[in-house]
Amino acid sequence: MHTLIIDTDPGADDVIALLFALAAPESLAVQALTTVAGNVPLAKTSRNARLACEWAGRPKIPVYAGADRPLQRTPIYAANIHGSEGITGVKVHEPAVPLAEGHAVDYLVRTLRAAPEKSVTLAMLGPQTNLALALEQAPDIVRGLRELVLMAGAHFNGGNITPTAEFNLFADPHAAEAVLKCGVPITMLPLDVTHKILTSDERIARLRGLGNKAGTIVADILDAYAPQEMKHYQMPGGPVHDATVTAYLLRPSLFQGRRIHVEVDSREGMGFGQTAADWHGSLNRPANVNWIADGDAQGFFDLLTEHIARLP
Ligand code: BDR
Ligand code: CA
């Protein structure tokens, strides 16, 4: 069982990751969602996070809005992939339940300080700005953290926003730098694995065939989102990046990785936001990340479909 906070920038694949996580209350005790600017600006990511809670039938999960911009760099967004509202393929509306009061960073500091030692897992599905701000304000919060599980990074086949960088790290490399150094156990699910876990017509049809509202939402998102990624990367299916974090939390045995040393490049230039992942241990530096390089694609889609089936 994980006591879980999910930091997110929904984002089409974030919404799928959230629905997936909210469908597993026996394994994932979701305390709150914290939002950050990323795929779209903060007001939209915060609305979309509340929509995910509503669609999952869990509208009372508190959603705290956090950082509206990266630590240092100019903000970037990915509306070209996720649509202008951030959830391509589905209609959005203003959710009935408002945002929780207070800033996400204050929520993180307060909650992690009060938590028993090594008790809270933080899943991070967007730029890592909120945790970096919380660490700067209150470095002692690491005590309350059990593990960080991040969708971030790229090593073997290059990036998705530049030739070298993955979006979440490119969007705030300075925040990622602080997080990678914080000393809490970190698992990263980079493009190396998310580009191996791809949709197919049959996988989307199974989700749609569930016949519930959540299955239709996930299938509509994937039908709109996957073709763009397939076209851009010439892949046979679309990745569901952030949802691999949920799958990892629920069933880590679906994934294979290695504990290695990882740094992020925060110097402006071609390598800005790139992960240097020392897969072969060439530098002989201490491992700070469990870097996931492979996963069971069919196992992932079976687990996702099984969980989405439980939702309204
Ligand atoms: C990551 O970038 C975002 O566009 C997605 O939501 C995901 O978190 C993939 O690089
Ligand atoms: Ca995301």
UniProtKB/TrEMBL annotation:
Keywords: Glycosidase, Hydrolase. It is an enzyme of class 3 (hydrolase). The keyword Transmembrane does not apply. One of its GO terms (biological process) is purine nucleoside catabolic process. GO terms for cellular component: cytosol. Gene3D superfamilies: Ribonucleoside hydrolase-like. Its EC number is 3.2.2.8. Coiled coil: none annotated. GO terms for molecular function: purine nucleosidase activity; uridine nucleosidase activity. Residues 4-302 form the Inosine/uridine-preferring nucleoside hydrolase domain. It comes from the Bacteria. This is Pyrimidine-specific ribonucleoside hydrolase RihB. It comes from Variovorax paradoxus.
